[in-house]
DNA sequence: AGTCAAACTGAACTGAACTCAGGTTGCTAG
DNA sequence: CTAGCAACCTGAGTTCAGTTCAGTTTGACT
């Protein structure tokens, strides 16, 4: 189920937090954050608009939470896929593979992340929003560091030609993430095919 | 000057349209579209808020205009750089080079484009907004076709290994455009260096 | 049965985008 | 010169989604 990861440890049994997140992911992912009315999310969950504020400080706080959760998942998946891989080329393959091992809900979350990255730039006025924003920003930096480290290791071991590892890491990430801008599960190209093409691109970018 | 391209042919001499666009590009590009108050743009130009509506139907209409202008410029630059190039590899090099031949204001416009692409997805309620949106969407598709054609030609001539040209074109575009998400003129990596790295990536992605 | 925190609500508030009903400016024609 | 007219501009008022307020309901646990 989708909701499993959306449940926080300290939630009461009556809590609708997970349901709100799930509904918000659907709306924000399909129609876009700005285009969806916060009250529509409440409607879908079956509560009044004001009840939302019991769980989230604001619409933006909910969005930032969704983004942070997805970044966390993304990073965990990277770490899980690459730890233990000795060969840098195999590690790179595993990292790209992990980036494409996503459910439909996670595709939406990646899209949301992509479309609202700009929110992570400026500071937020309210406290809980700012906390989520900071956490998300730090996860982004962690992920960039993880990829950079993977590349640096490969370069120092002679598996990859030496280049600016950080910029190259940003390029790889940019390439991979850009897929979620246009990819649709209903589209003509199946995800496995996209994954294969992108994996090839990444390997050629780094190893040749 | 920046404003030169922002002036429409049928503008009166007193028109502040160009000044509004320039101010909006600065604010939308630096602080983000949602984060900038429409009235702040008016303030910068030195007119009342309501005067904005003499030139643009809405804040979104202004944004869509900025996006369309940048897409137009982008496409023109691609065509100018690649027409006449016989060798597919040279054409690819020229295309990437053209993508990085940008002024500071154009960097902001690329960032704005990148951050608000989601606006091009859904239809707009008002007429002039919808016109701009359609134009922008069609430019995006033109650009995708241009790149796909470049790749298809290279593949059929044997200069590039045969792959899904359209998906590969989207990957190239995604890679190039992703730069504008993180690149800052004040940053540690100069644009020429970024350009070189990305050009190398693109060539390896396509030719190896 | 009483208590308490979690969960919820309708009514009121806020602020930024936008509309309205005109007023000003300066070019152009007579 | 001045009349007319279109481009340009304005202050006051409206709208609407997001948010706050001032409580009320629910249900687990003494």
Oligomeric form of this entry? Answer: homodimer
Number of strands of chain A: 0
CA radius of gyration of chain A: 18 Å
Mean pLDDT rating of chain A: 95
- H/E series of chain A, N to C? HHHHHHHHH
Please describe the biggest sheet of chain A, giving its number of strands, its sense, and whether it closes into a barrel.
none
Total helix count of chain A? 9
Broad structural category of chain A: mainly alpha
* β-sheet strand percentage of chain A: under 5%
Description:
- The structure is a homodimer of 208-residue chains.
- The first copy, chain A, has 208 residues and is mostly helical.
- The first copy, chain A, is built from nine helices and no strands.
- In chain A, α5 runs antiparallel to α7.
- The mean pLDDT of chain A is 95.
- Chains A and B meet through α8 and α9 of A and α8 and α9 of B.
Summarize the structure.
The first copy, chain A, is built from nine helices and no strands.
Topology:
Two copies of one chain form a homodimer.
Chain A lengths: L16 H15 L6 H8 L6 H4 L3 H24 L5 H13 L3 H13 L10 H30 L8 H18 L8 H17 L1
Chain A binds a DNA duplex (30 and 30 nucleotides) through helix 3.
Task: Give a quick set of tags describing it.
homodimer; 208 residues; mainly alpha; 68% helix; DNA-binding
